[in-house]
Amino acid sequence: MLTDLRVAVLIAAKDLRQRLRDRSAILVSIVAPLGLAIIFSGLLGNTTAFHARYVVANLDGGQLATVLRKDVIGALVTVKVADVTDAATRDEAIALVTDGKADAAFVIPAGFTAAINAGQGATIEIAGARNATLETEVARAVAQRFGDGVVSVQLAVATAAHLKGAPLDGPATGAIVTAAAAATPAVNLTDDVARLRQLSMATYFSASMAILFLFFSAQIGIVSLFDERRAGTLARILAGPIRPWSVLFGKLLAGFAMGVVSITVLVTATTLAIGADWGPPLGVALIGVTAIIAAIGISTLVASFAKTGESAGAAGSAVAITLGVLGGSFTVSSQSPDSMATIALFTPHGWFLRGLGELHGAGATAADALPAAGVLLAMGLATLALGLVRTRKLVTAR
Amino acid sequence: MTGEPQAPVVLSVRGLRKRYGDLEAVKDVSFDIREGETYGLLGPNGAGKSTTISIVCGLLRRDAGEVTVDGKPIDTGAVAAKAGIGVVPQDLAIYPDLSARENLTFFGRLYGLGGARLKSRIDTCLELVGLADRANERTDHFSGGMQRRLNIAIGMLHEPRLLLLDEPTVGVDPQSRNAILESIAALGREGMAVLYTTHYMEEAERLCDRVGIIDAGEIRAEGTRRELVALVGQRDEVRLTATGDLGAATKAVGALPGVGGAVVRDGVLELVVDDARGMLPRLLDAVDKAGATVRGVDVVQPDLEAVFLHLTGRALRDAS
Ligand SMILES: Nc1ncnc2c1ncn2[C@@H]1O[C@H](COP(=O)(O)OP(=O)(O)O)[C@@H](O)[C@H]1O
Ligand SMILES: [Mg+2]
Asked: Which of A154, B149, B177, B290 is spaced 20 to 30 Å from A78 by Cα?
């Protein structure tokens, strides 16, 4: 067993040495995704592409609630960042979000003004649509900003980010904001929105490009198995004192290592270069590793239908791009219809972006990435098992 | 064979059979190779040489038969026993984007070599195949002959008990070929058992202690060069250099009684005949009548080429 592992590591190390010598592999694993992430976030970060649709259920109607509705949320309309409509009830507001007619809802509870004037805490609920991470983030920031401006009170903002038809069960505990500042001038608010938009765009595109190109780097291992078969080196390896499975395992290991290098470089570089905010490192690592496993599993399965390295590579690329399109790698989430969000759930890309989104909720920890990581792992292991059963013929004697 | 005590058998092949669909590529092949012995499988393209090698090194399943190396059975799952075998495949099997040394290091480690021993073996093998001064260059910058030599070095790196060489000189310039043959001869002297396949009669004659003549999946005869040539018996090999309709001439002389085989190679009519002196007038007459003109006549000692002709009625090199 130990020697099998040694052989696998030996083959993977040899593959990595070859790949790092190969400009196209570096291009596809690092340069292309990094370049595109920077270009996209640069292009879109400076446009007014961001536009949110908010609904407000002002159930209080008191003085502070009116300030929040008119002066704070209203300012978003003034600076053309959002459309704002009003709803009579909480249910109505949330229905608009779940129906895709609004990106996020502000629910100002009855008794809001009175509670704050009495020096008690109050909670503003933010309910955001699943496919509107960015818009929900902005809404949350606006509400929190308002809390910052309210003198000597505690205001909780409960964010139900990524609401997907599920009812909100009462005011959840969110971040408790203690603030001492005075007013909430609209100018500061728009600055804040602009900053947020920039950050999130950078993160979004970095993540999209990372998962898209991960498929290209992860398939390098399994595709090289075909190349080695044609070159005769596979036969030469198999003539050695080794078990065939260790060769397959070595190839997977090489793909995994390429994936780790690619993601690590991308996360680091986009964080430094364009200020992408990936979230808690442990959570990002969890999502990253499981996404690599998913990418390897799917590439292995796809490659198992191919006859040559070229066809395996081409099929892998076609599948990678298709999954990328379906999974939202090419679309800004706020502009995609709800049906796309459903389709995205069948792709590792969708779950990767979703998992990273979960890491950006208020007070999110690495644990919030677990469900998405679980789905990615399951996708990876299932496709890998099938793929290996089918690829086995490449390494077993005829 | 000889009076001296025989070295132990390293490779034993018994009743080997392999079928690809309707084609029986290897039909009941048996042979032994002893320690320090170089055994040649001489036969044309498609004779079944590579198929035999693939089975012997455990890459290909056999339909029937037995293969043992040092008494240990070899088959596709014989992981440990395969460590004693080195393979030099017919087609180059090296990494073009790695240097010669990196290629050797990878395959050396695969066979369990490491540390100082790996390094010294690599240096020895590079020296042996004449690549020591180019060791750190990528192999895609090598000439065809250099790539072939590296291909061979990889097979002998781990000092296997048995080295399988599948037509290692095909497509190699004469100088490289000479170097290759010399390094292989050195291995035999060191006690390695070598299985060498070729369709070049000269290589088999020069290199091999014993030769098996293989055609259409069968070993037709086996022995030392002297033993094989004796099979041609009292017969002579006659070479007629001729111009004109050589095809018709071949047919005409081939039909004469006392002619064992007749082929044309490079404008030369090659015949195995019972008695050259007695038959020559009739041969010249037949060639003349067929519309060709004889320009020169050679009566030569039969060689392995003649043995092949005698056994199969075809020329070694044209038989493919
Ligand atoms: N994988 C294969 N499938 C079908 N036929 C094959 C295969 N490999 C070899 N053959 C056939 O088997 C015969 C022997 O081939 P091979 O062992 O390569 O001969 P040699 O090495 O002596 O040239 C040839 O007729 C060849 O066409
Ligand atoms: Mg061959």
From this structure: A154
